[in-house]
Structure formats: C-alpha cells, structure tokens
Amino acid sequence: MLMAVMNQTLVTEFLILGFSETPQLQMLLFPVFLLLYVVALSGNLLIMVAIGSCPALHTPMYFFLVNLAVVDILCTSTILPKLLGSMVADRTISYGGCIVQLFSFTWSLGAELLLFSAMAYDRYVAICWPLRYSTLMDSRVCRLLAVAVWTISLANTSVNTGLLLHLPFCHSNVVEHFFCEIPPLLKLACAPTRLNEAMAFTADVILALGNFSVIMLSYGCIIASILRIRSASGKRRAFSTCSSHLLVVSLYYCTVIYTYIRPASRYSLHKDKVVSVIYTSVAPSLNPLIYSLRNTEVKAALRRLFS
C-alpha cells in the first residue's frame, strides 16, 4: 500500500516477491520449507531439552550449543512462518512487520557469527590448555561470553535498523526476496543509502571476516596441538570434538560473506535468494543433525530422553 505525503508516495506495506515468478516451483517448495522449519524447530528444541536434562552435558561446549539452538529457532521462526503463509495466501507485509523481521533476523545472524567464535575459543582452550580448561572456561566466563554475544549482536542490529528507519521508501514496494533483508530494502529506498551501506559493510566485515579470522586462528592452533599428540586414538578424539563445529562454520560463513561483503547495488534476485536459503533455512535445520549425529554424548542423552 502507498500513501501520498508532501508530493511523495511513501510505502506503508511491502509485497514480498518470494518465489512467485514460478508458481509451479512455489507449490513444490512449500513442503520443502515446511519440512525445514519442522526439522529446525524440533531438532533444536530436542537439543536444548536433552542437554538441559543431562547433568553430564552441563559443560561450556554444550552451554554454547544451547545458545546456538536458541539463535537457530529465532532465525527460522522469524522468516519461515511468514514465507509459508505468503506461498498460500497474502504476500504483503506491513512496514512495521518488515522492520521487526529485519531486526530479529539481523540479531540472530550476528549472534550466530559471534557464537561460532565463542565455540571455537572453547575448543581451543580444551585442546591446547586442557589442564587449565576448568579455570579458563568456568561458568562465570561462559555467562560473560554469552552476554557479550547477545549484546553485541543486539547493538549491531539496532544501529542498522535505526538507520534504515530514516530512509523513505517510495514508488516501488516490491521486495525482491522471500523476507525483509537489508540489501533488497536498500534498493527500494528513494534517498541516498551510502551511510547505510557503509555501516552495514563495516559491521559485516567485523562480524563475518573478523570472527572468521578468529576461528581460523583458533583452529590453526588446535591443529598444531593435535599433530603433537602421539597416539592415533587421541588425535581422533580431538578431531571429533572439532569437526562438527568446523563443518557448520564453513557452510554458514561461505554464504554470509558472499551475501553481505559487497554493495547493495550488486544484489542479484535469483542468485542471492538461493544463497539466503542456505543460511536462513538449511543451516539451522542441519545444525542439530550435525551436532547430534556426530556426537556420541548428545546421542546418548537423546536415547535416555526417549527411553
């Protein structure tokens, strides 16, 4: 819906284009996204319940895994219900609803990137400083890291969303995406967006590339420490505690860096929608599967939970 104010037509609601350019494909995608949402929601809830009910899993590694599950639930619940609704009914979203969706998604995105660094640091201390692990990663340190993760990501999304609120949107209200994200919204603004792009780019460099560098440095030290282990079984145990995290990080960072480390003007409707599906829907669904199927302690906790 458009509203005329001071000889300018302002947008009061947006039309989410989604996958409507191919209706037949959209009907095929509905059960796929429904399955992804069910798997993400049930899988992450199961991880939280299993860890919460098993005192043996009340360790820093699983504390951060619970936080990751909360982030994944926030991410998918922000995007997928509205996407599923738009596939069968109304494809419009109010201006306020779009801003709330953007805020929640950006918050979860920043928190996930920071959590990966916290989890990498935890594995670094566990493998490289095993005798000091209980001291360096006590409950107080874990809580401080978790508070820092949520606070920094909240500050990031507050700044970028606040800057977006100052932009007028006029003439076109069609969002070339399946949810409200910064790059496609900036394309609709009828005012200069250089400040928005500069702040978003700075935040993304710090959160994406900065955290990715921290993770790579941590794993460089971890690999060097593992190679010094003499027994083959010891090496396998050390690698097994890191492989799940490294697999999730690789999947997530490749797609996020591709999407955000570039100007909004370079946004591509078809390519970016496919890439966005990976970090908004596929990754949150795979995370509980990767961490449970490749982790004997979590599998044991789930068996006890169901038995």
TrEMBL record:
Name used for this protein in its record: G-protein coupled receptors family 1 profile domain-containing protein
Keyword Thylakoid found: no
UniProt GO molecular function: G protein-coupled receptor activity; olfactory receptor activity
Domain of life the protein comes from: Eukaryota
Primary localization class, coarse: membrane
Compartment(s): Cell membrane
PROSITE patterns assigned to the protein according to its UniProt record, in alphabetical order: G_PROTEIN_RECEP_F1_2
UniProt xrefs under InterPro entries: GPCR_Rhodpsn, GPCR_Rhodpsn_7TM, Olfact_rcpt, Olfactory_GPCR
Keyword annotations of the record: Cell membrane, G-protein coupled receptor, Membrane, Olfaction, Receptor, Sensory transduction, Transducer, Transmembrane, Transmembrane helix
Species annotation: Panthera leo (Lion)
Transmembrane segments: 28-50, 62-81, 93-121, 141-159, 205-227, 239-261, 273-293
Recorded topology in the membrane: Multi-pass membrane protein
Functional summary from the UniProt entry: Putative odorant or sperm cell receptor.
SUPFAM superfamilies: Family A G protein-coupled receptor-like
GO cellular component terms, A-Z: plasma membrane
